[in-house]
Amino acid sequence: MTRASQGPDARGTLPQNGQGSVALVSARIVLSIDAMGGDRGPAAVVAGLSICAAQMPDADFILHGDEGELTKLLARDPALQNRVTLLHAARVVTMEDKPSQVMRHGQGTSMWGCIDSVRDGAASVAVSCGNTGALMAVAMIRLRRLPGVNRPAIACLWPSRNLGGYNLMLDAGADIKADAEDLVQYAMMGASYARNGMGLARPRVGLLNVGTEEHKGSAELKAASDQIAAAALRGDYDYIGYVEGVDLPSNRVDVIVTDGFTGNVALKTGEGTARLIADFLREAFNATFLSKFAALLAMNALKRLRTRMDPRRSNGGVFLGLNGIVVKSHGGADATGVAAAIDMAYKLARSGFRERLAARVASAVATGQGSAEGAQLPPRDAGMGQPE
Prior knowledge:
The protein is an alpha/beta fold. The protein has helices at residues 42-53, 67-74, 99-105, 110-119, 132-143, 180-197, 219-230, 232-235, 260-285, 289-297, 299-309, 335-351, 353-367; strands spanning 29-34, 59-65, 84-88, 125-128, 153-159, 166-170, 204-208, 238-243, 255-257, 317-320, 325-328.
């Protein structure tokens, strides 16, 4: 039987912490999932959970949302029984809700409960498909920033020509603005993530601009460029200077630093372009009998291309700089996309990312040598992306 909010777990009862959240006492990995925030509703979230749960035998899940609706959905998958705890949330944060409104009146929503489960130690990682701005706002006020971090960022992986297959870009939409100091922190966090999570001994960092020439860009970008260059030695990265939009998928850079507005526009543009190319290929191969025959001959190659370009398989952006781990799934993610985000959350939890990140940031603040290093993330097939 699926466990309800007060039901038993493998070790007995689920004690309450006095604030309405469950305090799980178990060595098993626990993930907190907002089941209600996505465009496709809780059905897609539960379906995604069903896809990946079988590969996570040591994981349990706290599902936040309408208990009646979720109970019916969970009943379809016997494999999830006794591994899911339902915490009822009568309200939902919509895509139209303003972050400021959610900050004041969001308590009692599935998103708020999802974050609180991490805050209270009931779960290791929070996963939500909900409103990006609202999710960051709730995460900021409930989890708080790590000491020394001014503005958290969403880090996402961009398919590239590099050997690892991806470049890291941040910010991808956590905040629409960033000053020079914020961009330097993004460079520090991004380089450390790339070094420890992507296996790059000395990542190459670039600052996204309208051109690579030194005289191009705003005064703030120029100030940021100078500061990122000055911090390269203590940040243990190579600063290659400005990069352009064409460099996002190139092998010239490993970490692309930009503000959240520009990063999110770039990300959505890339996603739309990938879908457009897929549509064009489909039309071209269906145009004539000979083209259909050619498609059959190229079937295996086309399947590999589709897999590599499929944005669903690279779903899940990680909030960097918070006192807790939050994985942001694309708002329109289907079951495959949700499964990718949950998979990323699971791997982060298994790696002890939260504890290592906090320890490294604390050490960096004390010594003045950057931040967010030392988190040994496991390799991942699919990248991170689509924050909304």
